[in-house]
Sequence to fold (178 residues):
Amino acid sequence: MTAATATAPPTRQGHDGLARLCLDHLALEEAHVRATLASLRTVRAALLANDQAALDDALMRHEGTVRRGEELRRARDGFRQEIGELLGLAPGEVNLSLLCSRLPADAGATLSARQEGLRRDAAEADHLNRSNAVLLHYCLDFLQRFFQDLTGRPAEVRYGPAGALRDTPSGSLIDARG
Fold:
C-alpha cells in the first residue's frame, strides 16, 4: 500500500464498511461491560448477604468474565490493527473518538452515542468494583481487629487524624488460663 492510498479517505462503501466494523466491535465491548456489571452486582449481593456459597459461585463466574475480558482485549487489538490499516494509521492512534470524526455524520453520531453509553457503563463497573473492594477491606479490617482483641496479640501502631499515636486496647478478651 502506498502512502497516497493509505491516507486516501474511504469511499461511501468504505464508510459503510468502516461503520459496520466499528458498530460490530462496539457491540462486543458493550456486551462485555454489561456482563462485568452483572458479575460485580452478583458478587456484591453475595457479600452483603454473607452467603459463602453464593460468593464462591459469583467469584467463579467472575473469573470467566475476566478471562473473556482478556479475549476481548486481544480482539480489540486486532480491531485497532485492522482499522489502522484501512485508515493508514498506527493501531495506537485508533480510538472511538477518532472513528466518530472519520465517519459520515449519521454513523458518527450513532457511534458517539453508543460510546457515551459504554463510558457510563464502564464508569459504573469501576465504581462498583471499588465499592466491593472497600466493603472487603472493612470486613477484613474488622476480622483482623477482632482476632487481635480475642488473642491479645499486640495491635499495629495506628495514627489518628491529628498525627498522634492512637491508644489501642490490649489484652485478651478470653482468659485462657487453665
Summary: The CA atoms of residues 30 and 117 lie 8 Å apart. The first helix runs from residue 3 to 6. DSSP finds five helices and no strands in the chain.
